[in-house]
Design brief:
The chain is mainly β and 102 residues long. The protein is built from one helix and eleven strands, in the order βββαββββββββ.
């Protein structure tokens, strides 16, 4: 249910996230397929993208990986950019993940 973006190359672990978790995001999407050498995860919460942060992802065998501290009960929104400022934002829909209560 929560890894709706596998076909786009975006996976979040655990599959169900809650406030207080450290979610692992694995990205092997459009930017990787275009030869990106560096990828940043851009994340924020809720409809207004509150508390945004950019996290430099680590290159791995599976693509790029980053830990995201889940600090809000609101939905977690993500997009990805490379070092040339090319974006993967799911065709302007972003990648959104529901945050569950503990």
């Amino acid at each position: 249910m929560y890894n709706l973006y596998v076909d786009n190359g975006v996976v979040i672990k655990p599959n169900v996230i809650a406030k207080g978790d450290d979610a692992t995001v694995i990205y092997n999407g459009l930017l990787c397929n275009s030869g990106a050498d560096t990828v940043y995860l851009h994340a924020g919460y809720g409809n207004s993208w509150d508390n945004t942060k950019d996290i430099k992802m680590t290159k791995t065998y599976d693509g790029f990986e980053a830990k995201v501290p889940v600090t809000s009960q609101q939905q977690l929104n993500m997009a990805f950019k490379d070092s040339a400022n090319n974006w993967d934002n799911n065709n302007t829909n972003n990648y959104t993940f529901e945050v569950q209560e503990r």
